[in-house]
Design goal:
globular; alpha/beta; about 180 residues; Nucleotidyltransferase, domain 5; about 20% strand; 5-stranded mixed beta sheet
């Protein structure tokens, strides 16, 4: 399976591609950070992100795109920029028929470091080790993009099995007052 992970942001948008599968060690394919100038018009910044992420999608043909879920921050402008960048990426994936998965920051941190409150340095160190990279990806947005891809690579088989089991399970109806305790 090939996953394109995206750590969305207007100033720095991390994009990383990871390959792997059952019994196969994960392998980093490519990682980059799209930087846009803060003083450029919003539409131009979003276009720059779209062009670069679309090129990565076309070049690497991912099976899934994993995007960090926007979470509430104190700075509304930052949240808006992150959400807008996420939307551009999700649209590019949808146009190509590529499924999009959303993962929270704590979910990603827990997947790669074993702790949902890991800091950026811990995530970067674990990504460097897990993907056997010769050096740590820089800036942190690059490591975060690889972490998103790796998180999805590891979590998606279990999520798929759980969804299949839920769909296959017959609906169980328990009459009121008859639940065992």
């Amino acid at each position: 399976m090939r996953v394109l992970g995206v750590d969305p942001g207007l100033t720095r948008c991390g994009i990383g591609v990871v390959d792997g599968g059952p019994g196969l060690p994960p392998r980093a394919v490519e990682v980059m950070v799209v930087r846009t100038p803060a003083d450029a018009p919003l539409a131009e910044r979003l276009l720059q992100i779209a062009v670069r992420v679309e090129a990565m999608m076309d070049r690497h043909q991912p099976d899934t795109v994993a995007i960090e879920r926007v979470f509430s921050q104190h700075n509304v402008r930052t949240v808006m920029g992150t959400a807008q960048a996420s939307g551009v990426v999700a649209l590019a994936a949808a146009r190509r028929g590529i499924p999009v998965a959303w993962h929270t920051p704590s979910e990603v941190k827990a997947a790669v470091s074993g702790h949902g409150n890991a800091d950026k340095a811990q995530v970067t160190a674990m990504i460097t080790r897990l993907l056997k990279l010769p050096e740590a990806p820089k800036p942190a947005d690059a490591a975060d993009a690889l972490a998103l891809a790796l998180c999805h690579l590891w979590r998606s088989p279990m999520q798929s099995r759980l969804a299949a089991a839920a769909a296959a399970a017959p609906a169980v109806s328990v009459p009121r007052g008859r639940m065992s305790r």
